[in-house]
Amino acid sequence: MVIKKAYGCNIQDVDGNVFIDTTMACGAQIIGHNNRLIRKIGKQIKNGTVYTVPNAHTRDVNLCLKKHINPDLHSEYIFCNTGTEANIRAIRLARAYTGKSKIAMFHGGWHGGIDGLINSKGVPLTTSELIKVLPYNDEDCLNEITPDLAAIIIEPVQGSNPRSDVGPFLQKLQKQCSDKGVLLILDEVMTGFRLSARGGAGLFNIKPDIVTYGKILGGGFPIGAVGGKTKIMETKDVFYGGTFSGNPLTMYAAKLILDTIINKKYIQYKYLDSLGEVFRNKLNSIFQDQKIPMQVMGCGPVNKIVFTEKFIKNKKDKDKLEQQNQEYFYDRLRLNGVLVNTNRIIQLSMSHTTKTVDKIINAAYLAVKG
Question: pTM for the complete prediction?
Answer without folding.
Answer: 0.96
